[in-house]
Amino acid sequence: MVESRLTRVLLRLGAGLTLAFMYLPLVVVALYAFNRNVTLAWPIERYSTRWFSEAWQDQDVRDALWLSFRAALGATLVALVLGSLAAMAVSRYRFFGREVVSFAVILPIALPGIISGLALQATILDVLSPLGISFGLTTIVIGHATFCVVVVYNNVVARMRRTAGSLDEASADLGADSWQTFRHVMFPQLRTALLAGGLLAFALSFDEVVVTTFTSGAQETLPIWIVGAITRPADLPIVNVVALFVIVVSIVPVYFASRLAGGAGLTSDRPPRGAVAAEIQAP
User: Fold this and answer.
1) Which of 2, 71, 82, 100 would you label with 17, given CA atoms 20 to 30 Å apart?
2) CATH code for position 257
3) CA distance 216 to 205
4) Is-contact 30 247, C-beta < 8 A?
5) How many DSSP H helices and E strands does the chain contain?
């Protein structure tokens, strides 16, 4: 279809307005991170990087950053294992209730965060606390993993639906056991999908607020620190710097995940059949 010149102009204008609506507030926060003054006023009169050093020297900020990184990494690892297993079961096997399982796996991402947080808090207090698991890093990881599993599951399911199950059958016909089939056939096809899902899960966990509020106890992740510090006017410049850092940390994994999940990356890592057979038969 060939669009007219007016149509192209209107489409570009609409796309520009949409992007401005979505990202202009982020640009404003980023600019305020370089504001030399303590008070926020527009337009910014003087620019400086003084608040970056102030933020780095703040021990509370460093502790919150370290906790956020550990929680995001832990939730990502849990999500990679559970999401991959669920995706392989749903994609490669037919069993009673398969669609119900698929729906149950993706449901947490649609639930309001406050509902998930309340449910997790009740579970921690009534089920996990008697077992010796109290509020802290472990409960944050558990809470974040409940919705991070969804992004890994969706990426792996989408990839497996685009790959032929006959390769797994050929591997079994050649005498490979389940582990050999996974290592030589399935994993080479899934590795970019797993990496993309892991990056998305890390970004999703790193900037989570609502569920963290109910599962962290007295611990403060970086987003929770921002929520607490934003009510203190003297800390607003540091809050802007930390917010800019969170924006960057969130954008970078999402960018690489989109690159990995799109285009030739979906098929370029598929091994030739001859190479699969050679690897399986090799001692």
Assistant:
1) 2
2) 1.10.3720.10
3) 13
4) yes
5) 13, 0
How many structural domains is the chain composed of?
Answer: 1
Q: Which residues contact 219 (CB under 8 A, 6 or more apart)?
A: 67, 135, 136, 137, 140
* Residue found by looking up tokens 């797993």 in the block: 194
Structure tokens belonging to residue 214: 């109910």
In-domain check, residue 175: yes
Tell me, yes or no, whether 43 lies in a domain: no
pTM exceeds 0.85 = no
Q: How far apart are CA 181 and CA 174, in angstroms?
A: 10
pLDDT tens digits, 125-160: 888 888 878 888 888 999 899 888 988 888 888 887
**Which two structure tokens, joined as six digits, stand for 189?**
């096809």
Which residue range forms the structural domain that includes residue 159?
Answer: 52-281
Residue 47 phi/psi, 5-degree rounding, is -105, 145
d(CA 26, CA 246): 11
